[in-house]
Amino acid sequence: MKRPTIADIARRAGVSKGAVSYALNGQPGVSEATRKRILAIAQEIGFNANSAARALSGARARAVGLTLCRPARILGIEPWFMGLISGFEAELGAHSYALTLQVVATPEQEIEVYRRWWGERRIDGVIVTDIREDDVRIPVLQQLQLPAVVIGGPGDTGSIAQIWSDDAGAITEAVRYLVALGHHKIARVSGVPDLLHTQVRTKAFNEVCASLGLDNVITLPADYTGEEGSRATRRLLIGGDRPTAIIYDNDVMAVAGLAVAQEMGLSVPGDLSIVAWDDSPLCSLVHPPLTALSRDISAYGAQAARELLNAIDGKKVGNVEAGRVHLTPRGSTAPPR
Amino acid sequence: MKRPTIADIARRAGVSKGAVSYALNGQPGVSEATRKRILAIAQEIGFNANSAARALSGARARAVGLTLCRPARILGIEPWFMGLISGFEAELGAHSYALTLQVVATPEQEIEVYRRWWGERRIDGVIVTDIREDDVRIPVLQQLQLPAVVIGGPGDTGSIAQIWSDDAGAITEAVRYLVALGHHKIARVSGVPDLLHTQVRTKAFNEVCASLGLDNVITLPADYTGEEGSRATRRLLIGGDRPTAIIYDNDVMAVAGLAVAQEMGLSVPGDLSIVAWDDSPLCSLVHPPLTALSRDISAYGAQAARELLNAIDGKKVGNVEAGRVHLTPRGSTAPPR
DNA sequence: CGGCGCAACTTACCCGGTTCAGTGACTTAC
DNA sequence: GTAAGTCACTGAACCGGGTAAGTTGCGCCG
Question: Which top-rank group of organisms is this from (chains A, B) (predicted)?
Answer without folding.
Answer: Bacteria
